[in-house]
Amino acid sequence: MVSGIDREGAALEAGATSFLHYDEWLRIGTVVESHVKTSVPSPPADRAGAGYKAPGAEPRLPAGRT
């Protein structure tokens, strides 16, 4: 959560995983990188590389189209 008012306590109680005050905007890249590293699993070593598509990553066509 990002806010110009210190709402860190309320944000964390409501389920936010972190809080960033507007005055700390220069840290946004580091904060996002940290969240991406901890929330996105890496592909298995035998499937990593060019052309690997995570399960469920296939594009879906609208209903009724093939």
Can you give a write-up of this model?
The chain is mostly helical. The chain has a domain at 2-39. Helix content is 27%, strand content 6%. It has two helices and two strands, in the order βαβα. The chain has helices spanning 8-13, 28-39; strands at 2-3, 20-21. Strands 1-2 form a two-stranded parallel ribbon. Strand 1 (2-3), helix 1 and strand 2 form a beta-alpha-beta unit. The protein is elongated, with a radius of gyration of 18 Å.
Keywords summarizing the entry:
mainly alpha; two-stranded parallel ribbon; 66 residues; single chain; elongated
Oligomer status: single chain
Number of helices: 2
What's the gyration radius in Å? Answer: 18 Å
Query: What is the terminal separation in angstroms?
Result: 41 Å
* Secondary structure tally: strands: 2
Largest sheet: number of strands, sense, barrel closure: 2 strands, parallel
Low-confidence stretches: none
Mean pLDDT rating: 76
- Which overall shape is indicated by the principal axes computed on the Cα atoms? elongated
Q: In order across it, which strands form the biggest sheet? A: 1-2
